[in-house]
């Protein structure tokens, strides 16, 4: 972890920031360079802090973060939004699922600096200001789609992503496209029923 | 109404929605690692890379040099701290930082504490040890293990159950089965990571850690840290899955507390998924030999069950499921023996239905094999061997609705449409198999305290130091109070998961609903009596009514005459604002010290096969359909039906969810779960959620749960049998039975995977 340079001479930082102009790296960078937001101010030393700006649940945040900080740890440890859960830190359980620009993303596999200029939605951002639940949240209650509740924020964010991707057309499709979210209490049939209930209303939200 | 909310039948409570449902779907339910902690430092463990030997030198200089590192707790730093003791509150006697002996792979060698998680992780990776290493013994197959008889080594198995003359009955049996079965090492893998947050205020220590036993941990941690238990508080309001893994405290808790004291700052250590495999407990690997003899009439004359279980070098952890298997059917004779095999492994622990899952798996497989050998229908075979009394002690069952469960489940499943001939059912490329098995779980109850407060506004607060691990106990405790006090559920709040609350027993052994509800009932009953006295007293609104037939409903006290009084008016007459009662429930048969032991974190368990008057079990029957691709041998489980009878069902919604979750666990036991071990290094190989395979949504289709009405007034005042562990007992045997029916292959070693079904 101590070496900022990789063997090709390109720094890890440069890959992340998208400031490299080498042609060979272009495909990797395509997405980042498309972002309209300016790149965050960063240090060449990964342990030093970078300034990162993002919008979370419709609010702007300006943060100074270790380049190695995951979006998940930024949400939990730096912003205090602990609704998003850590279950594996390896992208294997789905508990950390959030929406980035409306698409479901594993926040544990996303460096916070990669979220520069992005719009993040977490479980805390779903209910309306007057406390009204998102139809998916209500459906999870109605169908008892959780027991311990730990995977639930990730399940709900993933379920909204699943519907918006158009993968909630059938129960089999829901099962397939929700299989990245483990539920050890095994509320799976109830999760499927909840998504079926909330499917149409979620599309309208 | 939807599937999640079954209509209650006799002796079943309403499917009230979870009291914490809104908190859980909005991200507001705070699990222990979520608690905002000012000035917190981050701890990351460093663990051993060998399984047996000694640490000759621990190299920590590189780690110390990492910017942001505050401290490294390692050998020598725990010398003034008491060592953990193996038992119900401590996972193991292995005290990793007290001496340099390595007992298992992945043993803690240091805790790094740093300003940030990133720095702590970087530093922990730079720690490396020089070892004097020895060849470890990984388990059954290894040289150098030590085998000993289990009985008497652990309260889980006081003696090996036996009855009658097994040898003679076995010799004379007309039909015999003599087979071996095995179950693998499994890890609980709750989705919440294990964590400890330690905060000192002077000599007062607060620990935020997911726990199934806050009172027990308080006392044990105080002993280790040489503190007055009154100065230790364990807080665990929400637990992200437990399944037994958060029952015993591990050595980490004291280490994190010591780190926090050394640096004078709160420390939070969230254990990585990989490190949890070696630093927490797990389900012991087991092997079984079953000898079953029967007459041609189908009556079992001889039942022999031998078990072998892996444990650690120092600790006699015993699975010991022969207590249940020896009492399951009307055997003519029984002979059992359990051995434990000490290997270079971390100490196993309780994992959902710890004894029953592996032992009943073996028994129910043998039952299916015997039914096939006799040419009998497996349901009919069980019906023939249904006992009037259990055969070990000759005691009656407090209630036993097994055959009713079989009948209801068979009917719902369509068992009569099954063609008994092996390999006879097929749809296109898919071979169809159908099988069944019995579920059993002992019904126990323990002492428990609770405090209930009712205000003149009709607000109810229930306080009990039990644990909401997802079972719904918080909802059910509130439901019990709401019902007895005649208050709407919306007016009820329930506080749990804090050692500062009235003590409750460990949330294990499926005892929580029975124990907590019995205590809440007792407290509510006293509240009611006080209110009734006030209502019918001289100045009361129901003065002169007599208090024989008073009741509470809709926020009122009602008399038999039809007259009723609003709570507010009763409180006004009594000139009080609230009534608060503290109840200590002790089950029938409790020792005089039972309540004292509850406060000391060592609650007595009553029930199961331990009571004088009767044995107490919950039962169920599970039917499974498997589909096996004739080319790829992929196994799917399109549907599973389980019928369960567990006394009074407090809430059909939470009961169904628990049983459904248990059945899916059973599917996982049958087809997915196994911790793989590198035999050369005694090391777990698949230490993450990608390679430790658990059922995912796509693995599960139709799961039907039938709640069979049953009344049992003997088990406890609430009439409740626990069911959190019942659902995953027997399931794997039902799957194995269905696989045999589809393919003719008898797979006796779990999990059943494609490679077992090829050729």
From TrEMBL, chain A:
Cleavable signal peptide: none
> Which residue intervals define the domain 2Fe-2S ferredoxin-type in the entry?
50-126
Q: Which Gene3D superfamilies match?
A: 3.10.20.30, [2Fe-2S]-binding domain
Q: Which GO terms describe its molecular function?
A: 2 iron, 2 sulfur cluster binding; metal ion binding; oxidoreductase activity, acting on the aldehyde or oxo group of donors
InterPro entries in the cross-refs: 2Fe-2S-bd, 2Fe-2S-bd_dom_sf, 2Fe-2S_ferredoxin-like_sf, 2Fe-2S_ferredoxin-type, 2Fe2S_fd_BS, Aldehyde_Oxdr_Iron-Sulfur, Beta-grasp_dom_sf, TAT_signal
Instruction: Output the Pfam families linked to this UniProt entry.
Output: Fer2, Fer2_2
UniProt xrefs under CDD domains: fer2 (cd00207)
Q: Does the keyword Iron apply?
A: yes
Q: PROSITE patterns per the record?
A: 2FE2S_FER_1, 2FE2S_FER_2, TAT
Q: Highest taxon of the source?
A: Bacteria
Keywords of this protein's UniProt record, alphabetized? 2Fe-2S, Iron, Iron-sulfur, Metal-binding, Oxidoreductase
PANTHER family per the record? OXIDOREDUCTASE WITH IRON-SULFUR SUBUNIT (PTHR45331:SF2), OXIDOREDUCTASE, IRON-SULPHUR BINDING SUBUNIT-RELATED-RELATED (PTHR45331)
User: Any idea what this protein is called?
Assistant: (2Fe-2S)-binding protein
Lineage, broadest ranks: Bacteria, Pseudomonadati, Pseudomonadota, Alphaproteobacteria, Hyphomicrobiales
TrEMBL record, chain B:
Alphabetically ordered keywords of this record: Molybdenum, Oxidoreductase
Q: Which organism is it from?
A: Mesorhizobium neociceri
- Annotated Gene3D superfamilies: Aldehyde oxidase/xanthine dehydrogenase, a/b hammerhead, Aldehyde oxidase/xanthine dehydrogenase, molybdopterin binding domain
* Any one Gene Ontology molecular-function term assigned to this protein's record: oxidoreductase activity
Q: What is this protein called?
A: Xanthine dehydrogenase family protein molybdopterin-binding subunit
InterPro entries membership: Ald_Oxase/Xan_DH_a/b, Ald_Oxase/Xan_DH_a/b_sf, Ald_Oxase/xanthine_DH-like, AldOxase/xan_DH_MoCoBD1, AldOxase/xan_DH_MoCoBD2, AldOxase/xan_DH_Mopterin-bd_sf
* Span of domain Aldehyde oxidase/xanthine dehydrogenase a/b hammerhead: 26-135
Location of region: Disordered: 136-158
């Amino acid at each position: 972890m101590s070496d900022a340079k990789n063997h090709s001479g390109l720094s890890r930082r440069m890959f992340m920031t998208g400031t490299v102009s080498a042609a060979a790296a272009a495909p990797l960078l395509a997405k980042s360079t498309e972002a309209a937001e300016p790149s965050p101010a960063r240090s060449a030393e990964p342990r030093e802090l970078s300034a990162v700006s993002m919008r979370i649940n419709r609010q702007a945040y300006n943060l100074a973060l270790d380049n190695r900080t995951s979006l998940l740890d930024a949400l939990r440890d730096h912003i205090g939004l602990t609704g998003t859960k850590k279950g594996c830190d390896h992208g294997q359980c789905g508990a950390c699922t959030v929406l980035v620009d409306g698409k479901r993303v594993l926040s544990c596999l996303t460096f916070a600096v990669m979220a520069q200029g992005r719009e993040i939605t977490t479980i805390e951002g779903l209910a309306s200001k007057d406390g009204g639940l998102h139809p998916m949240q209500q459906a999870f209650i109605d169908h008892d789609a959780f027991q311990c509740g730990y995977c639930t924020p990730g399940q709900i964010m993933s379920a909204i992503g699943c519907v918006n991707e158009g993968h909630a057309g059938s129960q089999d499709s829901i099962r397939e496209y929700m299989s990245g979210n483990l539920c050890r209490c095994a509320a799976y049939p109830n999760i499927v029923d909840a998504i079926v209930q909330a499917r149409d209303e979620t599309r309208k939200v | 109404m939807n599937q999640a909310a079954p209509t209650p039948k006799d002796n079943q409570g309403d499917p009230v929605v979870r009291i914490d449902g809104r908190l859980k779907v909005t991200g507001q339910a705070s699990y222990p690692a979520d608690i905002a902690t000012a000035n917190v430092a981050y701890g990351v463990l460093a663990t051993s890379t060998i399984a047996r030997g000694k640490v000759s030198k621990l190299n920590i200089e590189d780690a110390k040099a990492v910017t942001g590192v505050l401290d490294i707790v390692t050998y020598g730093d725990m010398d003034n701290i008491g060592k953990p003791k193996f038992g119900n509150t401590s996972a193991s006697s292995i005290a990793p930082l007290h001496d340099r002996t390595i007992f298992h792979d992945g043993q803690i060698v240091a805790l790094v504490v740093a300003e940030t998680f990133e720095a702590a992780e970087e530093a922990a990776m730079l720690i490396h040890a020089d070892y004097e290493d020895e060849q470890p013994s990984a388990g059954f197959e290894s040289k150098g293990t030590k085998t000993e008889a289990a009985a008497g080594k652990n309260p889980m198995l006081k003696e090996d159950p036996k009855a009658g003359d097994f040898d003679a009955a076995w010799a004379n049996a007309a039909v015999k089965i003599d087979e071996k079965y095995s179950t693998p090492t499994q890890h609980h893998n709750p989705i919440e990571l294990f964590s400890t947050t330690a905060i000192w205020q002077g000599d007062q220590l607060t620990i935020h850690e997911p726990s199934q036993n806050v009172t027990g941990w308080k006392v044990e941690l105080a002993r280790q840290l040489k503190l007055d238990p009154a100065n230790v508080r364990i807080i665990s309001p929400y637990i992200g899955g437990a399944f037994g893994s958060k029952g015993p405290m591990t050595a980490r808790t004291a280490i994190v507390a010591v780190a926090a004291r050394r640096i004078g700052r709160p420390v939070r250590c969230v254990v990585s998924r990989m490190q949890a495999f070696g630093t927490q407990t797990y389900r012991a690997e087991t092997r079984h030999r079953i000898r079953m003899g029967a007459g041609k009439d189908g009556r079992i004359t001889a039942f022999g069950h031998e078990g072998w279980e892996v444990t650690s070098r120092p600790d006699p952890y015993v699975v010991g499921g022969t207590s249940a298997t020896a009492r399951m059917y009307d055997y003519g004779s029984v002979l059992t023996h359990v051995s434990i095999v000490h290997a270079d492994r971390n100490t196993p622990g309780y994992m959902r239905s710890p004894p029953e899952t592996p032992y009943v798996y073996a028994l129910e497989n043998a039952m299916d094999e015997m039914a096939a050998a006799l040419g009998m229908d497996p349901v009919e075979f069980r019906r023939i061997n249904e006992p009037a009394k259990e055969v070990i002690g000759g005691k009656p069952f407090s209630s036993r609705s097994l055959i009713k469960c079989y009948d209801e489940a068979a009917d719902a499943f369509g068992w009569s449409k099954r063609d008994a001939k092996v390999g006879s059912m097929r749809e296109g490329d898919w071979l169809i198999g159908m099988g069944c098995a019995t579920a059993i779980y002992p019904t126990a109850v323990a002492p428990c305290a609770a405090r209930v407060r009712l205000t003149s506004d009709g607000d109810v607060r229930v306080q009990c130091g039990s644990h909401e691990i997802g079972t719904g106990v918080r909802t059910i405790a509130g439901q019990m109070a709401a019902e007895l006090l005649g208050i709407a559920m919306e007016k009820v709040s329930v506080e749990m998961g804090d050692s500062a609350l009235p003590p409750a027993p460990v949330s294990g052994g499926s005892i929580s609903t029975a124990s907590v509800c019995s205590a809440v009932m007792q407290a509510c009953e006293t509240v009611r009596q006080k209110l009734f006295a006030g209502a019918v007293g001289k100045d009361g609104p129901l003065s002169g009514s007599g208090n024989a037939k008073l009741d509470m409903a809709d926020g009122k006290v009602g008399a038999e005459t039809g007259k009723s009084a609003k709570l507010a008016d009763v409180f006004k007459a009594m000139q009080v604002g609230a009534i608060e009662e503290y109840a200590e429930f002790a089950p029938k048969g409790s020792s005089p010290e039972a309540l004292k032991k509850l406060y000391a974190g060592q609650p007595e368990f009553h029930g199961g096969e331990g009571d004088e008057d009767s044995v107490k079990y919950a039962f169920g029957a599970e039917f499974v359909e498997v589909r096996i691709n004739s080319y790829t041998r992929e196994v799917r489980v399109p549907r599973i039906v389980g019928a369960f009878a567990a006394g009074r069902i407090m809430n059909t919604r939470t009961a169904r969810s628990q049983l459904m979750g248990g059945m899916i666990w059973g599917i996982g036991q049958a087809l997915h779960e196994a911790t793989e071990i590198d035999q050369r290094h005694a090391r777990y190989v698949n230490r993450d959620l990608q390679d430790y395979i658990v059922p995912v949504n796509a693995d599960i289709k139709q799961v039907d749960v039938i709640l069979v009405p049953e009344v049992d007034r003997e088990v406890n005042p609430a009439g409740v049998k626990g069911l959190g562990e019942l659902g995953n007992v027997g399931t794997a045997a039902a799957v194995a039975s269905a696989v045999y029916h589809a393919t003719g292959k008898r797979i006796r070693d779990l999990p059943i995977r494609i490679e077992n079904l090829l050729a």
